[in-house]
Sequence to fold (122 residues):
Amino acid sequence: MDEIISESFHTARKAHICENCTKPIEPGQRYRYRYGKVEGDLYTVKEHEECVAFCNRLIDEGYADDTYPYISDWPRTFDRYELPDDLWEARARIMGLHWPPLDERTARQRAWKRLKAWWRSL
Fold:
């Protein structure tokens, strides 16, 4: 059972990593700091304010229970057609992904272009 001991919102003074979307929390951005206990083990979590609001929306609309659906886990958690497109679009915006999803050929071409640019930079 998850027991929340402390929860508060802060403005970052240094860079952190969002436990939800795995993207950086930059200095000046607001984030939630949560301190709690799960099965006797203590934990701390830092998450973007937007990620918290988005996951709360998922829970409020009945797409997830309070096990808290981390945005970075979506491919493993939700089937592509389980959720309405506006939720997938919002997730893509938070994760910095392209929406609608690119077809496989276009995605491969873009990845190859980035790889070649990286190779040349060495």
About this structure: The mean pLDDT is 80.
